[in-house]
Automatic annotation (TrEMBL):
KW Transcription regulation (keyword) present: yes
UniProt xrefs under PROSITE patterns: RESPONSE_REGULATORY (PS50110)
Name of the protein in question: Response regulator receiver domain-containing protein
Matching InterPro entries: Bact_response_regulator, CheY-like_superfamily, Sig_transdc_resp-reg_receiver
Species of the source: Phyllobacterium bourgognense
Pfam families: Response_reg
Domain Response regulatory: 7-118
SUPFAM superfamilies per UniProt: CheY-like
Biological process per Gene Ontology, one example term: phosphorelay signal transduction system
Amino acid sequence: MPNSQSVIAIVDDDQRLLESLEDLLESAGHSVRVFSSAQMLLNSYTLPEIDCLITDIGMSGMDGVELQRLVSKKRPDLPVILITGRHEIADLLQAKHNWLFRKPFDGQALLAAIGNALTGKENS
């Protein structure tokens, strides 16, 4: 395991998905921070330390697209991976976002996208 683990933040209002993603990412050697709302992430002191953000698009309160917009003002180079269960939204956003996953998604594909995001490669 590398000495400096990548820190991945996950924002989703679905507790089961948060736990599942946390387990997946930790098993892959990442350090994980989980938040059940966008506001919880923004109110934390975590933003400067994270290497990649994974956020659900469809959350109550602030959605993932708005969170991405706010985060990009403070951390313009921070890679953001969007996830959604709403396929019509995914179809609209696919052209604008390199890292967009429709639920349910393949965990290995997500891990590959995180690896690409952390190394600055475009997701294919």
